[in-house]
# Entry
Amino acid sequence: MTNEPMAERSLLLEEMTWPEVRRALADGWDTVVVAVGAVEQHGPHLPLLVDAARGDRLAREVAQRLGRALVAPTIRIGCSEHHMDFPGTISLRPATLEAVCADYATSLARHGFRAVCFVPSHGGNFAPLAEMLDRLRAAAGPECDVRAYTDLVGFVAIWERAVAEAAPELKERVGGHADIAESSELLCIRPDLVRRERAEPGYVGGFNPELAQRIFRQGFQAVTPNGVLGDPRGMSREIGDRCIAATAEGMAAALRDPRRPAQ
Ligand SMILES: [Zn+2]
# Structure
């Protein structure tokens, strides 16, 4: 084992050896961030893996901002029943997702991690995470605090502010799904998978709690036949960088342990 400080090592639990994990815990690296993504339709221009790939990045960015935090493997499939009208989408029932999240939390708690933070990178996972949170806490036990970011409308509002800062004239194109914000993020993460020439607007009436309710009740296709909420045209890496940083900052602020100062 080297004396290399943790900050210079990978934050990814999967890339560590068990002695490195033991050492990290002994050094106070006792928080784990877990992204909860999806494999689901993202309009005609983005691949199905958007939320899984964004989850990988988001978890890393949140962990860096929390400090002394590792990153567990992204839960790549989420609750996407409302996208099932589109070919290729794979969906977990909420009970399945809860079982997976509970097993993550209890495994990590057994090793001595003191906090497990779930960060949804897919809109359909926010409500299930909020609903299961008390049971996850009970499963993990009193030594390990389970937290989750569950404010979907707040999350989209962060995207709106980030796009307004980067490109004020394109602010209206934020809609919450495969829009300018999310498409720009994927340009930063997997540019090889963005079909820019297929980018077209979807439902552009804006994101709000009423629209979210309608989507979860009736399915995406009832609101947007091409699967897009917002408009991806004008996407750029600059907008994507801003959106990634702003959402990570917003989530880290909500998940930070108030007893531990920011690092
Ligand atoms: Zn998405």
